[in-house]
Prior knowledge:
The chain is of the alpha+beta class. Helices cover 18% and strands 30% of the residues. It has six helices and twelve strands. The strands form three sheets. The chain has a seven-stranded antiparallel β-sheet with strand order 1-9-5-12-4-2-3. Strands 8-7-10 form a three-stranded antiparallel β-sheet, with no helix packed on it. A two-stranded antiparallel sheet has the order 6-11. A hairpin with a 5-residue loop joins strand 7 and strand 8. Helix 2 packs across helix 5. The radius of gyration is 17 Å and the shape is globular. 36% of the residues are buried.
Amino acid sequence: MTPAGLAPPLTPFKQIDQALRDDGFAVVSAETVAEFSKTPLSSLQKLTSFWDDLPRDPYLKDGGRYRFRRHASYQIKGDELNLVPHRAHWQSLDYNALHGGIERWFEPIQSELLNNPAWQSVLLGLAHILNGLKTVNTWFVEAHQFRIDTTDGIGRPTPEGAHRDGVDFVAVFLLDRVDIKGGETRIFDASGSAGLRFTLSQPWSLLLMNDQRMIHESTPIQPLTKYGYRDTLVLTYRSNGFQDSPNRSQQ
């Protein structure tokens, strides 16, 4: 494994699809994110302020107060990005043993962010890359804004532990790290023990994974002074519909 605190080699834009085929993941710089999004990096950086107004996650089963989030869902067909009516986030217990099996209704992402061209360009830019890896009519996309803080002395980005998300691809963008230590990313090949560990530190850098091949987690964070936090954006792309509870699908 790569020593903690070190970043793995970054994947250039034109090699992302090959890295996903060969390795099951790619780590991408913020400059490359701006490149495939066809938008200035400065426009992406302006979006970070929307992470300052996230409601607390009311569903944490460990009793923690350290996670804040908002949620939105889309369908992407070619160059067409369509926001779908606000819906619950649901995962089966197979993929999330801690919080699976329940409908979690998070507050929606703010309309000012949803309508921002830079935001929309990121979602479409990723879809264009993934279209080269899998023939898909419609991508079913969920967007999650996260802030993990140290209100309780420690914050857990992935309280469910190492996991898959039950989708085709997962994109984890690091937006900010403020006065913290920890928050190390760990990814493992689902079919074996091979793994990699590193710390995303550049704002808008990205870990992109084939969710069917890779298991991932992030280690807890602790404050360097009195208080700190870590902001991320997680986008999931699924080709065969949104994950829904069996009860909802039968209605």
